[in-house]
Q: What sequence folds into this?
């Protein structure tokens, strides 16, 4: 080779190397364990998860179902498998939730019990690393023969649990078990060139967590390998047969060519979360471009006002655009948890506040609705209207949702802040304290807020780096519009204006990607006051969304509201709301653990005493936050309130 050619080649290699090194990811995540949540609203929810929700998960995992017994039997190699083939995953997800919760709520008895579960899990692992109680107890010769059977899905949850438990306790038995299983999968598939389309995505994002934890590239490569398996017909004759639809399993075209959201909602959310994780490391623009397009399809055409997704029960997923029925809305709790994951990753890739706007909507409404105030009852589907027959339940045959909402709330600190070398992003207004590493210095913040009931927030600087640092404070999208895109619009006007002062003086800021950016050399004791005024906003939907025709929804701050029977003479289907009602907002500390209620006058229809006439009288109605409904028994409820006579239910 000529010397000049050699130099050129070296230069090209250097360019491609530096491109590969220059990650797409602009921001660093903040781990929940770095954040102390002090927020009155969320601290209560986290406490409830630590006590009530986790106890319920333990009770059902260990005593009321055979999930732990399956591991005991598998370790002995004999016995009848109890439950469904994916039940191992619920054990792992419960351990993950326990791990997050133990960090803030130490509980030696719970930890000891979890250690005993882990011993049983490890004992059930086969010498080659395989671990799945269903196949061990039915027919091990059939393992890895059916892509739909969730073996790799269970492995993904094992990996997440192993990392979480190690991070909290320092105990590595579960993590090592997970690593042996991951290595078994790597040699069975990627290294053997054996095609496999995961029936339920999850392993991709889990392998990315394992990659970051171990810094071993093979896990990144395996995650990427799983993503790249899709869209080549490898699932044909296997998972396609079971669902008669490659779109159900996001397997119609390769991920980078996908432009629409299709199929099972939870599987889709987990897959795109994993793809964002891979793209953040590999700089793969193909994934990112595809996901921006798909994200718009989700948010602009297929998302409920609650941030819930997956309208249909028949495929636990997406239907046609703009078809969002309210009473039969599926909106699986796990799909909303997945929306939080995916939108966080999209925010990490872009620094764009619109992803946090959607995350916040899903978190405060559709996801939070999945858990009762008592913490021991769960919604699997989260409808936006009810005739009084829906009720949260203690558990489910397919019990994915309880431990999923538990792990989300227990790790809430993951979502409040993010940062890079020169900036701190304040994403969610949740009272908390944190110290963020900034190169060799650090920045400490103490955030106090009235959210979600009042718009005032203060941030005091507790530690300041000795250099100019940008504080990027999210300007909630709901100040201007209900959600990105124009699926929903506000119909009343507002004078609400985002305001920020520093040490009592109005502060100039630069608006960037939905954040107010203030750059200065901060000092300890600096006080930033933020006002995100909350007013009752009325919302309507695009005409294509027929189910919401001539109906309005109410929102206050991040919260979507509903009318529920107990506050309204036990009825929620017997009124017509004026187009522009006058609203009164009251904080009611005794109601539903303390909520803002919205009262207004509406025409209420009632049957006359003789049962032969109907009267319509202007009466006061009271709306409550959507997440808090169904905590006083099963009652009627509606989110989308009719402004003309629609379906009416009048009981004398
Ligand atoms: Zn679920």
A:
């Amino acid at each position: 080779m000529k010397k000049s050619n050699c130099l050129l080649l070296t230069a090209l290699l250097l360019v491609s190397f530096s491109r590969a090194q220059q990650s797409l990811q602009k921001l660093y995540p903040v781990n929940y364990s770095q954040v102390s949540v002090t927020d009155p609203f969320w601290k209560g929810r986290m406490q409830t998860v630590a006590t009530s929700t986790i106890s319920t998960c333990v009770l059902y995992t260990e005593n009321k179902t055979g999930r732990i017994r399956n591991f005991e039997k598998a370790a002995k190699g004999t016995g009848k498998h109890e439950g469904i083939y994916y039940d191992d995953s619920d054990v792992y997800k419960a351990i993950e939730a326990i791990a997050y919760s133990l960090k803030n709520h130490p509980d030696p008895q719970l930890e000891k019990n979890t250690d005993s579960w882990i011993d049983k899990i490890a004992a059930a692992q086969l010498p080659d690393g395989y671990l799945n109680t269903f196949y061990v107890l039915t027919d091990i010769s059939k393992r890895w023969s059916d892509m739909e059977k969730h073996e790799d899905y269970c492995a993904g949850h094992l990996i997440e649990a192993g990392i979480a438990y190690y991070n909290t306790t320092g105990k590595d038995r579960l993590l090592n078990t997970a690593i042996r299983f991951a290595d078994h999968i790597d040699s069975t598939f990627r290294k053997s060139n054996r095609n496999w389309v995961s029936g339920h995505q999850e392993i991709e994002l889990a392998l990315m967590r394992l990659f970051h934890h171990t810094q071993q590239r093979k896990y990144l490569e395996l995650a990427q390998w799983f993503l790249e398996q899709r869209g080549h017909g490898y699932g044909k004759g296997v998972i396609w047969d079971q669902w008669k639809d490659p779109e159900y399993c996001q397997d119609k075209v390769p991920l980078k060519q996908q432009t629409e959201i299709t199929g099972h909602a939870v599987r889709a959310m987990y897959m795109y979360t994993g793809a964002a994780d891979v793209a953040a490391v590999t700089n793969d623009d193909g994934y990112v471009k595809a996901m921006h397009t798909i994200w718009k399809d989700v948010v602009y055409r297929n998302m409920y006002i609650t941030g819930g997704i997956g309208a249909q029960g028949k495929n636990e997923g997406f239907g046609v655009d703009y078809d969002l029925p309210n009473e039969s809305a599926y909106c699986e709790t796990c799909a909303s948890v997945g929306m939080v994951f995916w939108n966080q990753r999209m925010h990490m890739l872009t620094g764009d506040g619109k992803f946090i706007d959607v995350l916040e909507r899903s978190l405060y409404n559709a996801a939070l609705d999945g858990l009762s105030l008592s913490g021991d009852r769960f919604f699997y589907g989260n409808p936006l209207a009810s005739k009084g027959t829906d009720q949260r339940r203690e558990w489910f045959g397919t019990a994915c949702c309880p431990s999923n909402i538990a792990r989300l709330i227990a790790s809430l600190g993951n979502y409040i802040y993010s940062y890079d070398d020169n900036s701190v992003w304040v994403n969610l207004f949740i009272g908390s304290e944190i110290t963020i590493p900034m190169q060799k210095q650090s920045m400490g913040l103490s955030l106090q807020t009235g959210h979600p009931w009042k718009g005032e927030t203060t941030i005091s600087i507790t530690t300041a780096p000795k250099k100019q640092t940008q504080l990027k404070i999210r300007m909630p999208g709901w100040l201007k519009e209900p959600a990105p895109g124009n699926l929903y619009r506000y119909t009343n006007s507002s004078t609400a204006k985002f305001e920020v002062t520093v040490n009592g003086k109005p502060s100039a800021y630069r608006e960037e990607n939905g954040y107010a950016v203030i750059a200065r050399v901060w000092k300890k004791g600096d006080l930033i006051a933020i006002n995100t005024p909350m007013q009752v906003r009325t919302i309507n939907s695009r005409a294509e969304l027929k189910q919401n025709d001539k109906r309005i929804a109410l929102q206050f701050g991040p919260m979507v509201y509903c009318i529920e029977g107990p506050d309204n003479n036990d009825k929620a289907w017997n009124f017509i709301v004026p187009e522009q009602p006058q609203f009164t907002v009251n904080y009611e500390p005794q109601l539903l653990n303390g909520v803002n209620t919205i009262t207004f006058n509406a025409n209420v229809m009632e049957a006359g005493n003789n049962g032969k006439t109907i009267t319509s009288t202007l009466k006061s109605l009271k709306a409550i936050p959507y997440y808090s409904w169904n905590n006083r028994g099963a009652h009627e409820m509606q989110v989308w309130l009719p402004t003309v006579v629609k379906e009416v239910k009048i009981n004398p």
